[in-house]
Amino acid sequence: MKPSLLILAAGMGSRYGGLKQLDPVGPHGEYLLDYAVYDAVKAGFGKVVFLIKKNMEEEFKEIVSSRYAENIEIDYAFQGLEHLPPGFTVPESRTKPWGTAHAVMVSEGVINEPFAAINADDYYGPSSYQTLYNALNKMDNDSKELIMVGFRIENTLSEYGHVARGLCTISDDYLVSITEREEVMLLDGMIVYKDENGEHIEITPGTIVSMNFWGFAPDTVYPILKEQFAVFMKNHGYNPKAEFYIPVMIDHAISLGKVKVKVLKSDENWFGMTYKEDKVLVKENIRKKINEGIYPESLFVK
Asked: Which pTM was predicted?
């Protein structure tokens, strides 16, 4: 069975200020996730699974997935606050989803083959999908060697504000650890992050960062996710803002020796919809790629 693509689209985008997954950026109303599906189909993926909130299902089916029905199999997984381990309940003050690792976890049963997991509001580029597909196509369902496609940090910044990035330590093309850094930005010609003391620390250009572009083996990753999420709930479930993130899950699994993660490096320029102001640059980048012949003028011309 061909690898599947899981698109994480349940987040509300607090910094962006709206449902950025359904904000048009292409010349004929295309969303960023439309370009992701287009690239995935060309790369060879056999199925796309949208991870959404249950109350978004009707809108997604009507507006989004109907566009692809003739080109690739479409399915859904749903992320809800109530998807918890036995013995836990949703805190009254909790309103936001439980995070990206939880989103992947609740796709169990919908995906039964090696799969890619990506953010709906990020652009990764055609060659990134082809690179990951080629690796997933050789992966067994129970492989203990997972995959991360990493991007050079200078190719992942926003012109309109700071971002969070997972800085990767890599040895012999394998991930050693991921360290989350907040407020990563350009400052006086340097790439910096702000440490716990408020000091700006320089990041070396070329440093590989995680942009949530992963390749997972289902029989390996789902048990790890469920085990770690139970621990997360025990330690942080009372915190209304705490989230269970993929990089934290991966970092812990590596430290325990449960997985190895092969890092495949991409030279693509990432762009995404972190801030509303990013939309102008995203639209310019899409237009440039259309002019270069990477995409047709309309993705949905019959």
From this structure: 0.92
